[in-house]
Design a protein that fits this description.
Protein name: GntR family transcriptional regulator
Keywords: DNA-binding, Transcription, Transcription regulation
Radius of gyration: 19 Å
Number of helices: 10
CATH class of the largest domain: Mainly Alpha
Strand order of the largest sheet: 1-3-2
Strand content: under 5%
Helix content: over 70%
Domain HTH gntR-type: 18-85
Shape: elongated
InterPro entries: GntR_C, TF_FadR/GntR_C, Tscrpt_reg_HTH_GntR, WH-like_DNA-bd_sf, WH_DNA-bd_sf
CATH topology of the largest domain: Four Helix Bundle (Hemerythrin (Met), subunit A)
Distance between the termini: 31 Å
Pfam family, one: GntR
Length: 226
């Protein structure tokens, strides 16, 4: 009989040539973000370590990182459990994201290169093709790549990590919102509008589009929580 611990173990690839702490942290994070383990389920550090035949030290370090990202929480006399997502936290995160993403797009307007513009335009064309083919998993990946190119073009080194930490908390719900055909089409259209706003250096237009884009996503997340 499969247990929730099987999800964590099966999602951990120890063949990677990277620090064990990073491998464990990324594996646990991915399992949590994908929503494979219900809220409130206990993570048994000892069992996980024994099944993978690894030290408990990198596991503890990974759990501390995930606790700082609000994906798990430590409850006295219970242990580490999958954390419930709070509606108030979600609203706060979206307000912060709005400010940060407007900042990054406005900054990108001033220093984006023609090569980066062409790269984004080609990416959007390819995303539309993939979306028409119904490849949802790749569309999600390409949406992330769209954001990454814009973040990079802003030349703001710390901002991508800040936004990424916020997104990790909500990723399972953001993926659900993208599963809706109409929402996905609208998001792709909004990405094109954001690129046009960057090219024309229209900060007011960019802010309106980003606000609409995030409000639509927030609405889906709130419905899932309720």
């Amino acid at each position: 009989m499969q247990t929730w611990m099987d999800e964590f173990v099966n999602n951990t690839d120890l063949s990677q040539n990277r620090p064990l702490r990073d491998v464990v942290c990324e594996s646990l994070r991915r399992t949590l973000i994908e929503g494979k383990v219900p809220v409130g389920e206990r993570f048994v550090e000892k069992e996980y370590s024994q099944r993978l035949n690894i030290s408990r030290t990198p596991v503890r370090e990974a759990l501390k990182q995930l606790e700082s990202e609000d994906l798990v929480e430590y409850i006295p006399r219970v242990g580490v459990v999958v954390k419930r997502i709070c509606k108030e936290d979600v609203i706060e995160i979206y307000k912060i994201r709005l400010s940060l993403e407007v900042l990054v797009v406005n900054t990108a307007m001033e220093c984006i290169t023609q090569e980066e513009i062409d790269k984004i335009s080609n990416l959007l064309d390819y995303t539309e093709k993939v979306n028409n083919e119904g490849n949802l998993e790749e569309v999600i990946q390409l949406f992330g790549e769209f954001n990454s190119i814009i973040y990079k073009s802003s030349k703001m080194k710390r901002l991508p990590a800040m936004i990424s930490n916020l997104n990790n908390y909500l990723q399972r719900f953001r993926n659900i919102s993208i599963e809706d055909d109409n929402r996905r089409e609208k998001a792709l259209s909004e990405h094109r509008l954001i690129l046009n706003a960057i090219i024309s250096k229209d900060k007011e237009l960019a802010e309106r589009i980003i606000k609409t884009h995030l409000e639509d996503s927030l609405e889906v997340v709130i419905k899932e929580i309720d």
